[in-house]
């Protein structure tokens, strides 16, 4: 296959050969022996919103048992509070929600937006968000600043315009988007777009840049946010002495120097086992409990009591007007009520994370071994530059291949997040053609996790099935690289 002079030519050639790539990919399941009865019923992530993983037996049993009992919902929320305080301490509190995005929405609206009551026009508020992956979640609740980012979310999601991501923007709120030192924001993909390449992020230089932006926007600042993921591909590969991301600790210190809250979006993370706010200094951490933790569909907000009071009030959970310690009533965000079954599942999941974390860490260890073994077999021309990292925070293994692009040479094709929404990310749609439900695989980063047909009903890894998925991924990368002129 001919080599290409420019990146866009390579991606144009890939687009033209998608049918050929799929045709080759469809032969792979037979070649590696994937049983016909599991095709289309397993995948490389148990943490994808569109196809949640099956629930473990202990989660199902707790939900079934509790659903037959008469239990006030405020009592269940208080039980979640007790578990969180057992681990993090009495100064921490919690609010469950229907989804993680609901958790982000109520948190930002409670802490970042200006008040709506009173005569006269509202003032504008701003929060600072590093330019990192998944920015349409933690960074899309305000109007982007500076103006060059105004179109950054235009094609993300299934619906465009006012009813798409633009519709999330909150009252008189701006997002100050800050590029990170050492990151690269190159254009890649069939849907050609800037992608955040973050393995080179320098936390010391980055916090200086963030501090400069904070000083410029100080009169308007109401908070800071970032992701809570702990791997090199997300820009958090440099750790402090406790093993927590150094950049995250720096952002917390900067936020506190302005007496402002630091909100961490750790959707694909584990409470207690993963990102630790008591060590980084984060004030609020938000989770999707149906992703890595294996709960029923729901979200969770864990934070310091000072900041949790307005959040819990917005959810109607912080006590009745006549004076109680807890309630379960009507408030601004009653529509984000998680419901009884979700609360029961969260309680069981949190108990396991508190008392038996190995239920989730052991399958991660096993998956890491499988991924290492299978990627050791990839064509030697591709192996150099691939970084494989284990992350208990997401019960995941990260495969980052930014480093295959070096010395002016083209490497493994990088697909943008816009490719995912457009259906032109070959590493995702190609897996579907193989009968494997795809994982998050864009921005030069592939995130593999347990749960989606790759674990049994106790949570143990079914190694044979997981290996089928990783083998299929390796073969798809090789096929794609052939058409990209890299092999």
Average of pLDDT: 95
* Helical residue percent band: 25-40%
Low-confidence stretches: none
Query: What is the total tally of β strands?
Result: 14
Our count of helices gives 17
CATH fold call of the largest domain? Aspartate Aminotransferase, domain 2
| Quaternary organisation of the protein chains | single chain
How does this structure look, described?
With 487 residues, the chain is α/β, with parallel strands linked by helices. It folds into two domains: 175 residues, Aspartate Aminotransferase, domain 1 (Alpha-Beta Complex), CATH 3.90.1150; 299 residues, 3-Layer(aba) Sandwich (Aspartate Aminotransferase, domain 2), CATH 3.40.640. 37% of the residues lie in helices and 15% in strands. The protein is built from 17 helices and 14 strands. The strands form three sheets. The chain has an eight-stranded mixed β-sheet with strand order 1-10-9-8-7-2-4-3, with helices on both faces. It has a four-stranded antiparallel β-sheet with strand order 11-12-14-13. A two-stranded antiparallel ribbon has the order 5-6. Helix 4 packs across helix 12 and helix 16 packs across helix 17.
């Amino acid at each position: 296959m001919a080599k290409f002079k420019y990146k866009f030519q390579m991606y144009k050639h890939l687009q033209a050969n998608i049918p050929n790539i799929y045709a080759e990919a469809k032969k792979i399941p037979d070649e590696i022996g994937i049983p016909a009865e599991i095709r289309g019923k397993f995948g490389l992530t148990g943490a994808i919103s569109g196809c949640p993983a099956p629930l473990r037996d202990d989660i199902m049993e707790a939900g079934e048992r509790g659903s037959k009992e008469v239990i006030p919902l405020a009592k269940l929320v208080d039980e979640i509070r007790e578990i969180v305080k057992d681990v993090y301490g009495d100064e921490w509190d919690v609010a469950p929600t229907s989804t993680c995005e609901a958790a982000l929405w109520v948190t930002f609206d409670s802490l970042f937006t200006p008040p709506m009551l009173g005569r006269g026009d509202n003032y504008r508020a701003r929060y600072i968000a590093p330019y990192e992956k998944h920015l349409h979640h933690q960074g899309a609740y305000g109007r982007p600043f500076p103006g060059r980012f105004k179109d950054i979310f235009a094609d993300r999601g299934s619906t465009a315009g006012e009813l798409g991501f633009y519709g999330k923007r909150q009252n008189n709120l701006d997002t100050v988007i800050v590029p990170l030192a050492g990151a690269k924001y190159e254009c890649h993909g069939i849907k050609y777009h800037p992608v955040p390449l973050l393995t080179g992020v320098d936390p010391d230089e980055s916090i200086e840049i963030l501090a400069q932006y904070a000083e410029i926007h100080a009169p308007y600042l109401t908070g800071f946010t970032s992701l809570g993921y702990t791997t090199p591909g997300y820009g958090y590969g440099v750790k402090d002495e406790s093993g927590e991301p150094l950049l995250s600790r720096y952002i917390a210190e900067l936020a506190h120097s302005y007496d402002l809250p630091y909100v961490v979006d750790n959707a694909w993370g584990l409470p207690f086992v993963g990102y630790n706010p008591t060590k980084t200094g984060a004030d609020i951490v938000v989770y999707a409990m149906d992703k890595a933790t294996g709960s029923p569909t729901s979200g969770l907000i864990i934070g310091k009591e000072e900041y949790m009071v307005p959040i819990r009030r917005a959810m109607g959970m912080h006590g009745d007007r006549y004076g109680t310690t807890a309630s379960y009533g009507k408030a601004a965000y009653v529509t984000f009520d998680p419901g009884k079954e979700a609360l029961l599942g969260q309680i069981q999941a949190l108990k396991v994370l508190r008392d038996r974390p190995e239920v989730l860490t052991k399958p991660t260890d096993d998956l890491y071994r499988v991924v290492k073994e299978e990627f050791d077999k990839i064509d030697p021309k591709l192996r150099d530059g691939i970084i494989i990292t284990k992350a208990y925070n997401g019960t995941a293994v990260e495969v980052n291949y930014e480093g295959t692009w070096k010395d002016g040479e083209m490497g493994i094709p990088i697909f943008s997040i816009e490719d995912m929404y457009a259906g032109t990310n070959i590493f995702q749609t190609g897996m579907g053609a193989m009968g494997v439900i795809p994982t998050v695989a864009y921005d030069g980063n592939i995130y593999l996790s347990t749960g989606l047909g790759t674990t049994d009903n106790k949570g143990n890894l079914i190694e044979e099935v997981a290996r089928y998925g990783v083998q299929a991924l390796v073969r798809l990368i090789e096929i794609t690289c052939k058409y990209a002129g890299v092999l």
